[in-house]
């Protein structure tokens, strides 16, 4: 439980859903100042979606 001080867990941070949980937790716990990591990750995901649809 990240909110209770869990700093390490055996997970794969490259898994998409795990990465989103980590980013959201950092944002909610105040470790992502101004939400920049969350915003940048969201933008990158949106760009990938646009590229995927543009190829089709």
Features:
single chain, 56 residues, mainly alpha, 2 helices, 0% strand, elongated
Can you tell me about this structure?
The chain has 56 residues and is an all-alpha fold. It has one domain (13-55). It is built from 2 helices and no strands. It has helices at residues 16-28, 36-55. The chain is elongated and about 45 Å long. It starts with 15 loop residues before the first helix and ends with a helix.
Structure, briefly:
This protein is mostly helical and 56 residues long. The chain is built from two helices and no strands. The chain is elongated and about 45 Å long.
Q: How is the biggest beta sheet arranged?
A: none
User: Got a strand count?
Assistant: 0
Distance between the termini: 41 Å
Uncertain runs are none
Structural class computed from helices and strand pairing? mainly alpha
Number of structural domains: 1
Radius of gyration, in angstroms, nearest whole number: 14 Å
Described by the principal axes of the CA atoms, the overall outline is elongated
Q: Summarize the amount of helix as a percent range.
A: 55-70%
Mean pLDDT: 86
Number of helices: 2
Order of helices and strands: HH
Beta fraction: under 5%
């Amino acid at each position: 439980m990240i909110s209770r001080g869990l700093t390490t867990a055996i997970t794969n941070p490259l898994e998409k859903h795990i990465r989103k949980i980590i980013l959201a937790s950092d944002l909610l716990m105040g470790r992502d100042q101004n939400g920049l990591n969350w915003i940048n990750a969201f933008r990158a995901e949106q760009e990938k979606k646009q590229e995927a649809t543009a190829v089709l």
